[in-house]
Amino acid sequence: MAYISEKRELTPEIKQLVLSAPEIAQKVKPGQFVIVRCGEKGERIPLTVVEQDEEKGTLSIILQEVGNSTKKLGSLEKGEEITDIAGPLGNPSEVMNFGTVVCIGGGVGTAMVYPVAKALKGAGNRLVSIIGAKNRQLLILEEQMRKISDRLLVTTDDGSYGTHGFVTDALEKLIADGLTIDRVVAVGPVAMMSAVCRITEKQDIQTIVSLNPIMVDGTGMCGACRVTVAGETKFACIDGPDFDGHQVNFEELLRRQRMYLQEEKIALEKENSDK
Ligand code: FES
């Protein structure tokens, strides 16, 4: 059990919760996640740990309300309790001094790239960050990313803030401007991570993608996070979440995601017609 010691609304649909969970706060490393569950019958929700405070015994998570379970979690208020919390889970991200690292966060993926970016900066890397969202309202953690980055580029799909365009446009510009990049870390929608890898592959820049966004139950049981990496089947929640982006079969992943979207749509329509 964990209780909510703080709650912040980052956007109407994206909430940040600070949870009191001392044991996990002591152990968690950048890139790892926890699974939370609201109610005895609630679904398991895997969430990246954005920050932790070992002394206070708290950890911070960011969630986007997309289905019933995340809506329920997002509706909890300060002082309320979360039925279950388990973690830290997944493998920590590789953190060492690579040289110049570009960390890219798309949408709520920024919450997942932030702890890794911070650790990479702490390890002595020159950190250039790119964060993007559909529009200004959906942009999160700008201030925090700015604080830890040597340079921060912001993009919005609709041009309502920062540079008009995608995070990949900003990455291409950095490359065109002659920046020598030793490593790229990208977290966001699958299509975005795939597009980043297409660019970096041509330049031979090692690229790590964190496949947290495709996880559903985070336990190795639902199979939603199945992914082919270097011709082998892997599970993002157990074998990852970080993988060599150039080895990931994104085509297959995108195909499967489209299938899920279709199923989700049918489930949502059914739910609405049952009301
Ligand atoms: S998220 Fe369900 S198996 Fe990995």
Brief overview, please?
The protein is of the alpha/beta class and 275 residues long. It folds into two domains: 2-89, Translation factors (Elongation Factor Tu (Ef-tu), domain 3), CATH 2.40.30; 100-256, Nucleotide-binding domain of ferredoxin-NADP reductase (FNR) module (Rossmann fold).
Structural write-up:
With 275 residues, the chain is α/β, with parallel strands linked by helices. The protein is 32% helix and 32% strand. It contains eight helices and 16 strands. The strands form three sheets. A seven-stranded antiparallel β-sheet has the order 6-1-2-5-4-3-7, with helices on both faces. The chain has a seven-stranded mixed β-sheet with strand order 11-10-9-8-12-13-16, sandwiched between helices. α5 packs parallel to α6. The longest helix has 25 residues. It binds FE2/S2 (inorganic) cluster. FE2/S2 (inorganic) cluster binds next to α7.
Map the helices and strands.
Blueprint lengths: L1 E8 L4 E7 L1 H6 L5 E5 L7 E9 L4 E7 L3 H8 L5 E2 L1 E6 L10 E7 L2 H14 L3 E8 L8 H7 L2 E6 L6 E2 L2 H10 L6 E5 L2 H14 L3 E4 L15 E4 L2 E4 H4 L2 E3 L5 H25 L1
Parallel strand pairs: 8-9, 8-12, 9-10, 10-11, 12-13
Antiparallel strand pairs: 1-2, 1-6, 2-5, 3-4, 3-7, 4-5, 13-16, 14-15
The structure holds FE2/S2 (inorganic) cluster (FES).
User: How much helix is in the residues?
Assistant: 25-40%
| Fraction of residues in β-strands | 25-35%
CATH topology of the largest domain: Rossmann fold
**Strand adjacency order, main sheet:** 6-1-2-5-4-3-7
Query: In DSSP terms, counting alpha (H) and pi (I) runs of 4 or more, how many helices?
Result: 8
Q: What is the total tally of β strands? A: 16
Q: Summarize the main sheet.
A: 7 strands, antiparallel
Distance between the termini: 32 Å
Specify the CATH homologous superfamily of the largest domain.
Answer: Nucleotide-binding domain of ferredoxin-NADP reductase (FNR) module
Radius of gyration: 18 Å
Bound molecules: FE2/S2 (inorganic) cluster
Order of helices and strands: EEHEEEHEEEHEHEEHEHEEEHEH
